[in-house]
Amino acid sequence: MKGSMGAANQLMCTIGIFLPALLGLPIPNDPENYADDFIVKEYWRVVWGMPIIFVILQVILLLTIFRYDTPVALK
Fold this sequence. Notes:
mainly alpha
């Protein structure tokens, strides 16, 4: 169980790094031509907001549904 939880943690960290990079793909290389576009001016809020939403969801789930004692505490 310890190995699978460690692997899941590492996988979620990797996905957390990959998601903002994937969300940043629509940003154009030449922002002067798209000065009034949402992608250039306001899209950073989406790129930073998505991981924050997932963190808040994870904290809520860990504090409410997945509140289990560790195997050491159950002895």
